[in-house]
From TrEMBL:
GO terms for cellular component: plasma membrane. One of its GO terms (molecular function) is oxidoreductase activity, acting on the CH-CH group of donors. InterPro entries: Acyl-CoA_Oxase/DH_mid-dom (IPR006091), Acyl-CoA_Oxase/DH_mid-dom_sf (IPR046373), AcylCo_DH-like_C (IPR036250), AcylCo_DH/oxidase_C (IPR009075), AcylCoA_DH/ox_N (IPR013786), AcylCoA_DH/ox_N_sf (IPR037069), AcylCoA_DH/oxidase_NM_dom_sf (IPR009100), Mycobact_Acyl-CoA_DH (IPR052161). The lineage of its organism: Bacteria, Pseudomonadati, Pseudomonadota, Alphaproteobacteria, Hyphomicrobiales. Residues 140-234 form the Acyl-CoA oxidase/dehydrogenase middle domain. It comes from Bradyrhizobium cytisi. This is Acyl-CoA dehydrogenase.
Amino acid sequence: MMETTMSETETADLEQFRNETRAWLEASCPPEMRKPATSDTDVFWGGRNAKFSSEPQRIWFERMRDKGWTVPDWPKEYGGGGLSAAEHKVLRTEMGRIGARPPLSSFGIWMLGPALLKYGNDAQKKEHLPKIAAGLIRWCQGYSEPNAGSDLASLQTRAESDGDDFVITGSKIWTSYANYADWIFCLVRTDSAAKKHDGISFILFDMTSKGVTTKPILLISGYSPFCETFFDGVRVPKSHVVGTVNRGWDVAKYLLQHERAMISGMGERGVGRPLGQIAADSVGSDAQGKLDDAMLRGKIASFDVDEAALAACAERAVDLAKAGQAHPAFSSAMKYYGTELNKRRYEILMSAGGVDALEWESERSRQGARPRAWLRTKANSIEGGTTEVMLGIVAKRILDLPGA
């Protein structure tokens, strides 16, 4: 009888939370923040030099920050909302219902934060997590190197011991937004004599440190979100190592689960317009209001089903993770499916646009937004772990296939 009463009480409390959350979001989220972002500059990344693209963006961020809802499920002591798994799910659902944008985009939230919560010491958590939650620091990731991409453990950026410091020398590549970042979470080799997975440490340092330089990499899309990053004798206190020295691979693997889950999210439509509506802008509709191209209509219908399946799978993955039951390799399956789905989305958009979709510079095409985005998706199956690597992990860790 007690269990039934508790269950009913919990259900009632959650329903009250839903009603309060719905009312607060309706009153607090500006209409402009209920529309999809149109470009990277329309997303708020935070950081020391951050600027808001609009007044509604500032209002929305500050209101959510003050509630602790930039990181709703983090402990309140670190600037989070302290929400339970069920409450966080309600918040996500209610934000999705009105199309509310995330108030803050951050590698600190998506990747570093979870790693610090699991492996960081008290001082590191108190130093970095509140700043991440408040959007005060923008982070970048120092993993891949010119000769250590898919085989990440072959990295050669070295950190040599010198008293209370490490002196870091080497380079990283494909460092997303390194030229805008304030700090970096970085993998370095602290023991060159150990087996390649055993001599790596996970360390944090300021990008304004002496000896750090960045060089943007221009992509085929005409944009440059990636950089080469160089370290020339960068001095970093040993206290900045997260976890144990030479055991950074444990932290790196855990963080990669969150990175791949984050990347898989690009396969979901989110708050954007449905694909069929976008296609109808170019192709038109028949007398019954259906998309006036049967083959394209079929492709979109198939895509919509797969997109819905990914969304359901992502929701399940979140629930399993909150319950501590997630398979560590499941994020690899999600990453593969999400990135391939996003590539399909833009192939359909290009088909729907016909020759107009090939416009690169005209005002009509918004400076070639569609073909540039289409070209950008080609990197989806490389970044965060290649499709081949993801399928290998699934074969070995989930399917347990012979010889995998």
